[in-house]
């Protein structure tokens, strides 16, 4: 796939991507199934409400969303809020009305471009979120691997419903609460997943490892049938989808909101709470999953809020839990190789089919097999490499990152994120000087070059502006990021620049030059394209193009936005030869320096300067050399007002004096 194809979203029905999307959707479905059930159980709601939320997240939210990576469904970060609001409002039907209104609020927020807030989320918090989810997945799935299922899948809080916490729960495993059959299936599943990644033939095959894990788990459990209760996996150790005996009973699972409470203020308080928290989680998770996307696509956050709002309206109308973008499912989706949002839509369709037609079959899947998939996903998210990378970026980046990780693990998703954001704000306030980023577009022979000049003090508050400018860069474009005038650059901005240069720019076929970055920033000056005129460019250029280059440069000069050029580097680059675009005849007047007037660099023009701007044999010879030998495409004459040489000549003539009497023997020829 070319870099331009990687950036341009493919049709969800493209023959080149649909097979991989269907495979990814199947893997996400296997992960989402127990999570939907577990989150519903942890929220104190009907199991079916969690499944409905997963179906809506796939069929409604994904269809409207502009993201090709995000997968939505019931969120672990909302479990405490859902449980509290159901209790406060007194009934699940009243809670559904609050969810419906929350969806309307999210749609309004999205239309008002509220998604722009995502640009202000520090990357240290985003990375901390990803790693924390990975750590939690590892810690929470270990009990399920051993067949210890007292807490539901999808329960992410530190303090658990069984009054244990994430760490003490691990100790209970060794108190004899181990199911041998579930443990065998769990460890075998982990082995299959790890081997699948390490054997190239299997890794490249179209058969996803998680599907093999589920099939092997089901078949192995069938083999345990006659081996006693210590081996047979049953009851709470299996997926438990509510089974409807008929279509009428199936539709009986649907619940309608209690519209009689429409004017109850408590409903609107709950709706605002759900909308705010769900929107915050969605924006953070969307940003996190985008960082995992190999194609480095940017999901439109405001459109995502509208999609989530539509999803929550539907959930409120039919009896589902509120939905958000979910980083666990999104990361599984990306890791499975999804190409478009068809994978998320397909996962929703599979959830619907499994609930409506295949609940008995789905209920044969051991939870330990699914826990193995999540545990391996956790190891990928919480890779030691990320810790090393964040450590190398310095304490201003590592401290918010590690505090976010710890806070999420020992509290819950929402509280941990808020703590991480608060710590990041404290670091941001440490760099309180705010100046806008200077952006200048320079016309060159082979295409425009965008110059981004960083200010003296670059705080995190500049991140949104820089992120916007970088993302506006067109595929195949050229970019110069100049830190020559910067005394301080926030680590988060450095991380953004580093990520853009190393990952985003290559994916979009954008050439990036870096200059002026201090050694401590670990962003050494780099040049991916020449910033002076080469012989190849000189041969391609036309005289009209040169006129435009001079015109644009003069506009920058008059507006006070001249480019910051590394003239020393240009001197070295052109030492072996020069290929100017034009020859310019101008006056020696000190107020009309040609390179400055046209905002050009070393090696761009021949400058012929004579007092009074006149042409003699020597200057004509110089111009003839420029055209005939050096190959310039334009000869220009630069005039100016209040010329000192002309004024002096006029004064001498008016006084009936010759130039020799005032200056010497050679000026008279110019006066004549």
From TrEMBL:
Cellular component aspect of the GO annotation: membrane
Residues that coordinate or bind Zn(2+): 587, 589, 640, 643
MF terms (GO), sorted A to Z: carbonate dehydratase activity; zinc ion binding
STAS domain: residues covered: 439-523
Cofactor list: Zn(2+)
Chief localization: membrane
Pfam family, one: Pro_CA
InterPro entries: Carbonic_anhydrase (IPR001765), Carbonic_anhydrase_sf (IPR036874), SLC26A/SulP_dom (IPR011547), SLC26A/SulP_fam (IPR001902), STAS_dom (IPR002645)
Alphabetical GO biological process terms: transmembrane transport
Keyword Metal-binding: yes
Alphabetically ordered keywords of this record: Membrane, Metal-binding, Transmembrane, Transmembrane helix, Zinc
Alphabetized SMART domains for the sequence: Pro_CA
Cofactor remark from the record: Binds 1 zinc ion per subunit.
Family assignment from sequence similarity: Belongs to the beta-class carbonic anhydrase family.
Protein name: Sulfate transporter
Organism of derivation: Rhodopirellula europaea 6C
């Amino acid at each position: 796939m070319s870099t331009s194809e990687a950036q341009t979203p493919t049709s969800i029905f493209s023959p080149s991507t649909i097979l991989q999307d269907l495979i990814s959707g199947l893997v996400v479905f296997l992960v989402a199934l127990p999570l939907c059930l577990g989150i519903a159980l942890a929220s104190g709601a009907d199991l079916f409400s969690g499944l409905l939320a997963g179906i809506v997240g796939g069929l409604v939210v994904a269809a409207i969303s502009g993201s090709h990576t995000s997968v939505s469904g019931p969120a672990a970060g909302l479990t405490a809020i859902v449980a509290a609001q159901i209790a406060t409002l007194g009934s699940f039907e009243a809670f559904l009305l609050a969810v419906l209104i929350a969806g309307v609020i999210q749609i309004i927020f999205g239309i008002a471009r509220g998604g722009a807030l995502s640009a202000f989320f520090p990357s240290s918090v985003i990375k901390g979120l990803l790693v924390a989810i990975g750590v939690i997945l590892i810690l929470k799935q270990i009990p399920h691997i051993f067949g210890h299922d007292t807490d539901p899948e999808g329960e992410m809080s530190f303090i658990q419903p069984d009054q244990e916490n994430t760490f003490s729960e691990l100790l209970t495993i060794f108190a004899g609460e181990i199911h041998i059959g579930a443990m065998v299936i769990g460890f075998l599943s982990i082995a299959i997943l790890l081997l699948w990644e390490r054997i190239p033939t299997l890794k490249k095959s179209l058969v996803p490892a998680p599907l093999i894990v589920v099939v092997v788990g089901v078949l192995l459990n069938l083999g345990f049938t006659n081996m006693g209760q210590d081996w047979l996996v049953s009851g709470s150790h299996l997926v438990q989808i509510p089974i409807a005996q008929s279509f009428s009973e199936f539709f009986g699972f649907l619940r309608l909101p209690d519209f009689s409470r429409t004017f109850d203020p408590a409903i609107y308080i709950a709706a605002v709470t759900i909308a705010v928290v769900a929107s915050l989680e969605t924006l953070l998770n969307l940003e996190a999953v985008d960082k995992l996307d190999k194609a480095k696509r940017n999901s439109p956050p405001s459109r995502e809020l509208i999609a989530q709002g539509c999803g929550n309206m539907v959930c409120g109308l039919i009896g589902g839990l509120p939905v958000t973008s979910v980083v666990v499912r999104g990361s599984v989706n990306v890791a499975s190789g999804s190409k478009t949002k068809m994978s998320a839509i397909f996962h929703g369709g599979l959830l619907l089919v499994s609930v409506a037609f295949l609940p008995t079959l789905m209920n044969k899947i051991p939870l330990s097999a699914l826990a193995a998939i999540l545990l391996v996903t956790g190891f990928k998210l919480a890779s030691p490499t990320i810790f090393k990378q964040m450590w190398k970026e310095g304490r201003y980046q590592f401290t918010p990152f590690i505090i976010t990780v710890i806070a999420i693990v020992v509290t819950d998703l929402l509280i941990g994120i808020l703590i991480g954001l608060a710590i990041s704000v404290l670091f941001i306030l440490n760099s309180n000087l705010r100046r806008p980023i200077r952006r200048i577009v320079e016309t060159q022979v082979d295409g425009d070059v965008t110059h981004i000049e960083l200010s003296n003090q670059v705080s995190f508050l500049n991140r949104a502006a820089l992120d916007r400018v970088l993302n506006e860069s067109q595929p195949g474009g050229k970019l110069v990021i100049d830190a020559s005038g910067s005394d301080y650059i926030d680590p988060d901005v450095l991380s953004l620049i580093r990520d853009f240069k190393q990952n985003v720019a290559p994916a979009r076929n954008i050439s990036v030059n870096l200059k002026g970055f201090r050694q401590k920033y670990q962003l050494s000056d780099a040049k991916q394209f020449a910033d002076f005129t080469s012989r190849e460019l000189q041969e391609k250029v036309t005289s009209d193009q040169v006129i435009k280059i001079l015109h644009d440069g003069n506009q920058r000069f008059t507006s006070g936005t001249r480019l910051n050029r590394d003239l020393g580097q240009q001197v070295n680059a052109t030492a072996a030869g020069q290929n100017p675009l034009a020859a310019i005849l101008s006056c020696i007047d000190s107020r009309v320096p040609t390179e400055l007037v046209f905002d050009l660099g070393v090696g761009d023009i021949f400058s012929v300067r004579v007092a009074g701007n006149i042409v003699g044999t020597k200057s004509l010879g110089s111009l003839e050399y420029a055209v005939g030998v050096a190959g310039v495409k334009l000869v220009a004459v630069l005039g100016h007002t209040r010329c000192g040489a002309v004024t002096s000549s006029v004064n001498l003539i008016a006084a009936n004096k010759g130039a020799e009497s005032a200056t010497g023997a050679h000026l008279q020829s110019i006066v004549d």
